[in-house]
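LOG
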Amino acid sequence: MSATRPLWLRVTAALIVFGAAPVTVFAAFWTFFWLPSPFAGIMALVVLAASAVAVSPLGRGRWDRDAFAVQGFFVVLLLLAYAVVAVVAANEAREAFASRATHATTAAQCAAWLALCAEAVILGALVVATVPVRVSRRVLVRVVGVLAVLGFGTAGAAAATAGSDSCGRFQFDRAAWQRDPVAVADALARCGTLEGLTEGQLRALLVEWPGERSWRGHTRDTLWLGDRLAVEFGDDGRVRSAKLYTPVAEPWMD
């Protein structure tokens, strides 16, 4: 069941897989704030535990006779975890790109999902190339080659995406506003879409904002929509700036 791989490949693979585990854990916990579920945390723990066990046969180039079943299980588990992370990250990247026009999804968020997908695919290719199992060299080269091209191609797309302007494609969409007003409000504030509007134009545009509308300030210069979006007007009666606040009660907001 074992097959010898070059020493440099085994050592490199073991170091990268083991060293990348904390990075994957950090990335998965970071994406927890974008995924309203404990999925990211569970996947991070699976990758961390599986990497610690799988690194031994990868680096040594052979299975431990007394622990073959355990090591084999964790290698398969690690590959499955990489596959799940890659699929989820690719799907989230697709949704992030699809919502750029209506939510001005940041380039950093799109690039982060692509980078996480690329990392999972490249690490999976490295494990497949190093796992001590006898397989046709031609088949091995083809499988690893396809995975490597997918991984590095996705990484290149992430690098290109990180430099693009998300606000350049943003257009206010009333249907998206009604479905998810907070996310669209964040885009409106970041992209400066409201700047230059009069109070009447603002109220006509944001007719479905949830919560109360109230003026704050002694000079009637800041209009609060609910307790989240603060729109500041200039002396000419037009919007000067807008900012979306997190829903935390602050003394100065009373």
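LOG (cont.) second protein
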Amino acid sequence: MTVNLYKRVGVIAAFLLVFSAVGLYLHTRQDAMSEKVMMYYGDWSPEENRFDATKWFRNDLYRRDVAEGKASAVTMLRNRPLPFKSSDNDEVVAAAIVALEAADAAVNGDSLGNTWPMLIPRIRYRYSAFAAPDKPQDYYNIYLKYQGERYVITFARDGQTGEIIPEGNVQLMYPDSDTQIADREVFKELDAAGIP
């Protein structure tokens, strides 16, 4: 009889504990989401180009990025970045060629265009930002080994349609650069996995 009583009390206590934890979580989340999230958009300007981006965080598509211990008003993180399919590779290679040639006239993308490598496994999500009010863009890096050099090519995708935006930023990797430590780690991971 006492074993049954202890079992019931234990079940009731566990139920109350779980119920309380869920209630506290929902209450905290509702308080956090009741605040307006004002985000910058577009290129930097002296004007305060901000808009109410709260809906993008309420629908759990994005979460706030933290920079220097504070929630960023410029960048955010996508909870589930859009996946790339094998069929996206042609656009990714074309974007890489355009970005490489635009960054350095001495770099010729013909060799990349001739070999047309599979770059999808070399892509990593980086961050997201708004190009205009309610127009999120997700930024990705391609970690490319090309003509004896290592490059990090950052390009954007429309955050709603997934369309690749054909312009990018290119960084040449330097072996001793303190600002490229995280990127060197990604290259090491790709090399260790044998991804060409």
